[in-house]
Write the structure tokens for this entry.
Amino acid sequence: MKFCCQCGAPVELRIPEGDTIPRHVCVSCQTIHYQNPRMIVGCIAEWDEQVLLCKRAIDPRRGLWTVPAGFMENGETTYQGAVRETLEEANARVEIGMLYALYNIPHINQVYILFRARLLDLDFSAGAETLEVKLFREDEIPWDQIAFATVRNTLTQYYRDRRHGEHKFHMGTIEPIKKI
Amino acid sequence: MKFCCQCGAPVELRIPEGDTIPRHVCVSCQTIHYQNPRMIVGCIAEWDEQVLLCKRAIDPRRGLWTVPAGFMENGETTYQGAVRETLEEANARVEIGMLYALYNIPHINQVYILFRARLLDLDFSAGAETLEVKLFREDEIPWDQIAFATVRNTLTQYYRDRRHGEHKFHMGTIEPIKKI
């Protein structure tokens, strides 16, 4: 951020009075521009013993598989966002169930919020940001081609829970990958 | 938003190609400025049968009571945010427990995320944005002076759960108050 989105004057990075964190503050109108984490909302869409995965048509991680999920929009709830993303990415209709996972990813200022969901019909297809949509049984999941750590962790936990006969809410934090 | 925070040129509101929602797009550098909901993170800090409430020193709802909570910051997790807010507002140290409530407030683009927490000592006091900090038993809670619907709902549910001997995660949506 270099300019004030309210008046167009330059911003400077400084700690406002009464605050503890440097913020972008307009040198002219003094507006403080806060920046906050964003939520990614999505779901594990279930059909019998299968779950719906999407092969990404866009970066990051083009060509890898993920659950339907994306940035939550203003004016919607977390579940409405998950339903919308599933419709956009997989042209699929779901009924949202329990909150299943919340993952913090502090190094990229994101929080993943994933629900369990019931796929309502088999009339799905790839949306504009998706190359392919497919249902997978546990032994068919392409574990080495999953796009994100959040999704890999959630699916691993999901099948572990299923073997134990009880789905529980999971919470965790994803650390950056350390290059050796 | 009137100006591009990257280059200072004016922005216009239009639906970018491949999108479905109007966004602020820079007329010069074409940067698309997305706006997304923000998270409020906080906790129900428990001490025996009491919970910690803060009387707000700032607007909105100055003079009314709430649990320690505030906007989640970049670079932190939801629990770190709840710990930080409790320290800032009540000078109180807590150990975060289970995720207790998630409330969507779509008309103001917010998601409330509240944890149960254990207050670690009684050495608390009002922070800069707080007039007074106090522990309350259920029959002492100032129900008609609670600042926010999310907090009133969460505390109501909290005591109901306690009577049933089991605390469960709660999720809901707060609708705008309709003026008659």
Notes: The first strand of chain B starts at residue 11 and ends at 14. The mean pLDDT of chain B is 96.
